[in-house]
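User: Just a sanity check before I run the rest of the batch. Below are the structure tokens for the first item. I only need the designed sequence back.
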């Protein structure tokens, strides 16, 4: 079928080829085939067909420097001919399909069959009028026999419609969220010589796109000009090595690949379904449809596959990334997972790479993830309740049948008359219906609904709190977070860099000097160096509002330096115009290994000059000269370096400033240096200046961190900055307090402490470090990942730590994926980081993380509230139905009444209790942790306490109610007798008690005031009143279908009064201390062994499937609901790249698992783990020593080469 659709596609295009070529100089098919070439083949092909890249641009009617003019007619024409940059999403399921899915529910099917049998039998009249029934029956009542069956069918229809509607609205919400995330994806394009940010969907063939470090390419294109560009193509090829791209050797850039280094400009040649990712996707789409056909024919499909297909996955090319719910079977079409594994492992090369990589790949291809805490607990609870419910319902049916048989055939010795068979069968069907009803009531099918509503509601509200949730379960996991590893720059600080101090011409200026005070030669070198040696996309624009601060665009550290140029009354733009980007001879772009950036230009006399900037320790180490007070280079000896560190760099760092050194070097024209020999090129530099850049702490951060600490969450700062700067900022934020016993170390010291002699990471060693660690400075992305993994895998504390991580850089990807919850920065974050994250912080602000914690805890509490309410209803209803059936041969609560109580109260109560807004008090307690049972002892006390009250009332009414109210007894009524007042009072009282208990359920920690904040939740109020109103209608006008007899006002008052008793009884229960009730065990607890082992994925599959089998056995109504949630969660995962579903943030079998517990983690490339010394200080120190006094010689400040100086966290 795939071939079919594609051949149609080609046929159609063939017809249009002629006119494409007429409008533009090349056709769609030409460009498609061009993009399939690589390397020199592509270069040759371009030269043969178009002359050169200029020729290609001319044919596409675009200018390599000015881009498209942007005329709407022209853009429309291009979309028409070359297609839009979208992949059409998979069609959502129709409402009817969802109805059909909801009907697949086993319990509902049993009910439907029973109801149909009951209906059929009620219309069957046996020959001969003599009925062998106990008790007489007049015509009218026999007529009414069909009503119960019909009512059950009707309530089944209600259940199905409600379920389908919920699924439908859920899917709609997800699509809304998806499109919101798509709209946020922008890309830099040159149009009409202006660089603009364009939504990815608006990119057309012929656009000139600017690519830079951290981008995910949104379309295929040909590189026109590039600086040191390296691309990770593993998502398409499965090769993890970065591919170097250049206009003359390999200019082909493909959509869906990541820019790992460098920058450049490309002309877009294929978009949407015609790009390489789009073509694969079209094949995949065809594959999905084929699979669905197979599935319909009943061909075997793996469970994962099925889940993948059911997921309402829509796919679109978000920033060139392929998003769809990939199916484990389909992923075999492409060796995608290999790519995923390889890409993930890239930063962490392992010693015995080969076999681990193999193992890893096998694992990566199984998209299983450790269940989220809540899912695990709920599944477990489901199994427990399911077994109990099944047992109760089976016993009920057996007792009823035996009782009937013994009474009729043994005691009364009646013969079995053939003509009476239908009546006996009708009795058995009635018993069966009662049994099924007990099961229906026993199973809390409102639970998946409560979970979904609660999560969906939270996700919607979290948008307002600047949290864009990409995976539903992340929201709930956040409530259990015990540790947050945060970046510094931009998250804890404002990410508005301003140069405030500088050292130039042998003078340390505490404020930016007057331009006259600086030697003119030094000033010229400084201004030229900063202007040329920074990304040309970084600019400082005039403020939006009058009197506002200037707008910083691009890399913030570079903005700080450009700001320095402006403060020195000079302008960088004329210099950039004079030396445009095309004229830069060679660029060594910034990356986490170099920690510096250098640009080479050719001077008019043919010689070369290289400008460098970077972290001051790193650049100064490479300087052999420094400019003196008149701007001439003088020798810069190691002794001077130590002096400089003591007198300039350390004091700046202690003020919380980031120090950047700017330097240059001249090279002769002949012989031309070998530019690839980086180590020799980046040496013998001449230092121009050291600048201290301030990035102030965000005003709301100290308060937010204090809230976290109160809530039992440890905040750690992981940054690429200098240790002194990091410590100064940590004190300002309140992460460390003077006098505490904590650890502030840098990456080098961290590695020295956690690795053994062979350079392998050992868990025991990490366990000695992480509990006290508060600041990790000069850390590499690998360090961050090692730390997160070490904390998560640690077994030294009884609760497994739940770790949240923030990240913005491309290299933070592995840590974000490994963490339980990954937060990416919405403003400063690269696409790669967003891709790996679970939640995107749209304002890059740490205090939004605290909001996420609050919402996460609220979800957990909402579900506990609902469980407390639900289980009380269930316990009481099951016991009443069971004992009633055993003693009176009939359930006091009829099937339809039970379905009303169960379904409507479930659905509405889940809405009412799941939409409670969070309060600050949620942050005043410690996290629950993985091993705490879902139903705490307080909740168990409440459930049993209220259960006892309700049972006492109901049994009193059942056995002596007729005497109290002076009415006819409803017990032992014949088969189709009319509804009795007696049983109506029982039903009505039962519902009233549930209504008032719903108010009690709003508090689960034993609070006294259950009405607190009730009016802040209008949904809750309207549901309580609404349910009350409907109950009045049912009792007064429900008649035969609901087995109700209208009640007078006095009896109504009694029912309401007994209901209000619930509130008073609630206060009594709150008075009983939990310590008295040792025997109350929590339920739904995850024990250590339920935490799925990370050693063996197959074991993990077994375990999950085993649970599912158990549930099948219990025919659990709501397990499908839970599955649906998981499917939705998967959809959100699918909504990452094609790799997304393959490893989840907290999957224990995650890509980085090859660093198995104790096996090696690679030593960093320069092998400097055997650090001689480091600028770390172990703290058990009094305040006066907090600020670093030890003056260390420069050589010892040396740090790992990973340190990221730009947008370092």
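Assistant: Here's the designed sequence for the first item:
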């Amino acid at each position: 079928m795939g071939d079919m659709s594609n051949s149609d596609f080609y046929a159609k295009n063939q017809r249009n080829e002629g006119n494409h070529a007429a409008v533009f100089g090349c056709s769609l098919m030409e460009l498609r085939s061009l993009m399939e070439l690589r390397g020199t083949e592509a270069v040759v092909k371009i030269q043969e067909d178009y002359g050169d890249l200029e020729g290609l641009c001319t044919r596409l009617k675009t200018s390599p420097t000015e881009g498209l003019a942007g005329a709407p007619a022209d853009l429309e024409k291009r979309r028409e001919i070359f297609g839009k940059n979208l992949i059409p999403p998979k069609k959502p399921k129709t409402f009817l399909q969802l109805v059909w899915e909801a009907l697949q529910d086993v319990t509902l099917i049993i009910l439907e069959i029973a109801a149909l049998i009951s209906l059929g039998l009620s219309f069957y009249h046996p020959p001969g009028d003599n009925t062998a029934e106990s008790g007489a029956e007049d015509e009218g009542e026999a007529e009414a026999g069909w009503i119960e069956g019909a009512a059950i069918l009707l309530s089944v229809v209600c259940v199905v419609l409600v379920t389908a509607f919920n699924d439908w609205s859920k899917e709609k919400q997800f699509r809304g969220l998806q499109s919101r995330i798509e709209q946020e994806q922008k890309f830099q394009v040159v149009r009409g010589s202006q660089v603009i940010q364009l939504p990815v969907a608006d990119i057309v063939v012929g656009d000139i796109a600017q690519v830079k470090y951290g981008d995910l390419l949104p379309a295929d294109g040909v590189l026109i000009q590039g600086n040191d560009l390296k691309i990770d193509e593993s998502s398409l090829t499965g090769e993890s090595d970065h591919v170097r791209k250049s206009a003359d050797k390999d200019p082909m850039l493909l959509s869906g690949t990541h820019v790992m280094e460098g920058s450049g400009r490309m002309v877009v040649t294929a978009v949407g379904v015609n790009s390489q990712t789009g073509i694969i996707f079209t094949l995949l789409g065809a594959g999905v449809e084929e699979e669905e056909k197979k599935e319909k024919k009943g061909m075997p499909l793996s469970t994962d596959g099925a889940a993948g297909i059911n997921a309402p996955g829509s796919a679109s090319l978000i920033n060139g990334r392929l998003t769809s719910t990939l199916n484990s079977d389909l992923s075999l079409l492409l060796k995608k997972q290999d790519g995923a594994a390889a890409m993930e492992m890239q930063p962490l090369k392992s010693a015995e790479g080969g076999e681990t990589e193999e193992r890893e790949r096998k694992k990566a291809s199984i998209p299983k993830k450790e269940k989220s805490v809540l899912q695990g607990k709920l599944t477990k609870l489901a199994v427990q309740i399911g077994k109990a419910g099944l047992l109760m319902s089976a016993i009920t049916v057996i007792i009823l049948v035996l009782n009937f048989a013994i009474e009729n055939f043994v005691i009364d010795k009646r013969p079995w008359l053939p003509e009476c068979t239908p009546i006996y069968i009708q009795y058995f069907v009635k018993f069966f219906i009662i049994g099924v009803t007990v099961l229906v009531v026993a199973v809390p099918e409102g639970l998946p609904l409560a979970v979904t509503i609660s999560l969906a509601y939270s996700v919607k509200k979290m948008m307002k709190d600047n949290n864009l949730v990409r995976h539903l379960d992340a929201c709930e996991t956040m409530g259990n977070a015990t540790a947050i590893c945060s970046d510094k720059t931009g998250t804890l600080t404002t990410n508005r860099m301003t140069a405030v101090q500088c050292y130039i011409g042998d003078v340390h200026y505490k404020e930016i000097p007057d331009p006259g005070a600086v030697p003119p030669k030094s000033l010229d070198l400084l201004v030229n160096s900063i202007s040329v040696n920074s990304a040309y996309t970084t600019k400082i624009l005039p403020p939006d509002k009058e009197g506002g601060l200037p707008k910083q665009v691009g890399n913030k550290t570079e903005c700080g330096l450009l700001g320095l140029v402006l403060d020195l009354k000079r302008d960088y733009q004329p210099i950039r115009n004079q030396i445009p980007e095309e004229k830069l001879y060679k660029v060594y772009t910034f990356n986490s290994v170099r920690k510096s950036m250098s640009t080479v230009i050719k001077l008019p006399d043919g010689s070369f000059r290289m400008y460098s900037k970077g972290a001051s320790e790193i650049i100064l180490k490479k300087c052999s000269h420094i400019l003196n007070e008149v701007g001439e280079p003088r020798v810069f000896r190691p002794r001077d370096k130590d002096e400089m560190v003591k007198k300039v760099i350390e004091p700046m760092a202690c003020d919380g400033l980031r120090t950047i050194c700017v330097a240059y070097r001249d090279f002769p024209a002949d012989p031309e240096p070998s530019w690839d020999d980086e180590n020799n090129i980046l040496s013998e530099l001449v230092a121009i200046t050291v600048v201290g850049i301030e990035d102030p702490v965000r005003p709301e951060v100290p308060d937010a961190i204090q809230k976290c600490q109160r809530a039992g969450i440890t905040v750690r700062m992981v940054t690429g900055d200098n240790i002194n700067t990091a410590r100064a900022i940590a004190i300002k934020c309140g992460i460390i307090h003077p006098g505490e016993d904590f650890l502030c170390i840098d990456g080098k010291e961290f590695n020295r402490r956690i690795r053994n002699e062979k350079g392998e990471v050992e868990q025991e060693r990490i366990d000695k470090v992480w509990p006290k660690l508060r600041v990790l400075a000069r850390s590499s992305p690998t360090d961050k990942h090692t730390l997160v993994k070490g904390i998560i895998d640690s077994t030294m504390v009884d609760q497994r730590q739940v770790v949240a991580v923030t990240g913005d850089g491309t290299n933070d990807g592995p840590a974000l994926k490994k963490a339980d919850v990954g937060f990416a920065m919405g403003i400063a974050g690269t696409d790669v980081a967003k891709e790996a994250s679970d939640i995107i912080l749209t304002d890059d602000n740490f205090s939004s993380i605290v909001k996420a914690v609050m919402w996460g805890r609220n979800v957990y509490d909402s579900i506990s509230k609902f469980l407390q309410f639900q289980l009380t209803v269930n316990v009481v209803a099951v016991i009443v139905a069971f004992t009633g059936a055993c003693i009176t041969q009939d359930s006091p609560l009829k099937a339809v009444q039970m379905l009303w109580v169960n379904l409507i109260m479930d659905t509405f109560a889940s809405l009412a209790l799941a939409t409670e807004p969070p309060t600050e008090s949620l942050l005043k307690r410690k996290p629950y942790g993985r091993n705490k049972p879902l139903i705490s002892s307080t909740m168990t006390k409440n459930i049993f306490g209220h259960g006892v009250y309700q049972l006492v009332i109901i049994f009193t009414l059942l056995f002596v109610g007729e005497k109290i109210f002076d009415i006819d007894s409803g017990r032992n009524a014949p088969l189709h007798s009319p509804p009795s007042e007696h049983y109506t009072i029982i039903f009505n009282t039962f519902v009233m008690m549930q209504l008032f208990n719903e108010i009690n359920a709003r508090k689960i920690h034993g609070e006294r005031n259950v009405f607190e904040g009730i009016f802040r939740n209008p949904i809750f109020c309207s549901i309580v009143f609404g349910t009350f109103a409907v109950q009045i209608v049912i009792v007064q006008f429900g008649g035969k279908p609901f087995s109700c007899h209208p009640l007078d006002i006095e009896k109504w008052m009694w029912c309401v009064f007994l209901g209000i008793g619930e509130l008073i009884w609630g206060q009594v229960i709150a008075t009983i201390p939990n310590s008295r009730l040792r025997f109350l065990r929590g339920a739904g607890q995850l024990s250590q062994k339920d935490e799925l082992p990370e050693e063996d994925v197959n074991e993990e599959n077994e375990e999950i499937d085993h649970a599912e089998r158990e549930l099948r056995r219990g025919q659990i109504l709501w397990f499908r609901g839970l599955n649906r949630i998981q499917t939705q969660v998967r959809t959100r995962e699918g909504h990452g790249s094609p790799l997304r579903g393959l490893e989840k943030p907290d999957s224990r079998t995650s890509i980085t698992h090859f660093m198995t517990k104790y096996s090696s983690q690679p030593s960093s490339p320069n092998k400097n783990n055997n650090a001689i010394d480091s600028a770390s200080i172990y703290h058990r120190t009094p305040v006066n020593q907090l600020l670093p006094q030890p003056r260390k010689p420069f050589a010892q400040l040396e740090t790992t080469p990973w340190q990221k100086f730009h947008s370092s966290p």
